[in-house]
């Protein structure tokens, strides 16, 4: 349930609290066992900002920091911390941030972000049959 329909509520700094099923999601993306084992140890901080015409998602971990700059509704390129490359579109719809990306082999990954009734950031990651839930707080 979306508590705040304003996209602005998604901006700011968010720390990872909890999540589930990440291993299955990473398998669907084609990540090998070593990469999945490392990913399980990573706790991330998300920093989301906006300028006049662009938004940016900065993901900070103990291993690497990545930045995805984008204009909503315009195709963008993303390089993940493990150097996988994706193309896709990010759209804001009814208080949700919906990120639809394809890797170089056409594999679809979808990430949906929103703020719940407790003002926590909820994130659902989907790829193939895997679905991951992640929770972030300020």
TrEMBL record:
SUPFAM superfamilies referenced in this protein's UniProt entry, alphabetically:
Lipocalins
What name does UniProt use for this protein? Lipocalin/cytosolic fatty-acid binding domain-containing protein
Q: Any idea which GO molecular function terms this record carries?
A: lipid binding
Q: Which family does it belong to?
A: Belongs to the calycin superfamily. Fatty-acid binding protein (FABP) family.
Q: Which InterPro entries match?
A: Calycin, Fatty_acid-bd, ILBP, Lipocln_cytosolic_FA-bd_dom
Q: Where is the Lipocalin/cytosolic fatty-acid binding domain?
A: 12-115
Bilayer-crossing residues are: none
Report the superkingdom from the record: Eukaryota
Whether Chaperone counts among this entry's keywords is no
The UniProt keyword set, sorted, is:
Lipid-binding
- Tell me which Pfam families the record gives: Lipocalin
Q: Which organism is it from?
A: Rotaria magnacalcarata
């Amino acid at each position: 349930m979306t508590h705040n329909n304003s996209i602005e509520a998604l901006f700011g700094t968010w720390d990872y609290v909890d999540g589930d099923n990440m291993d299955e999601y990473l398998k669907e993306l084609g990540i090998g066992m070593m990469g999945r084992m490392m990913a399980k140890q990573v706790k991330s901080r998300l920093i989301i900002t906006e300028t006049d015409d662009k938004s940016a998602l900065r993901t900070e971990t103990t291993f690497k920091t990545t930045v995805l700059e984008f204009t909503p509704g315009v195709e963008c390129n993303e390089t993940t911390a493990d150097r996988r490359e994706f193309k896709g579109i990010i759209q804001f719809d009814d208080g949700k941030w919906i990120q639809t990306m394809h890797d170089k082999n056409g594999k679809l990954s979808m990430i949906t972000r929103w703020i719940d009734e407790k003002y926590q950031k909820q994130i659902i990651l989907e790829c193939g049959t895997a679905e991951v839930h992640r929770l972030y707080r300020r």
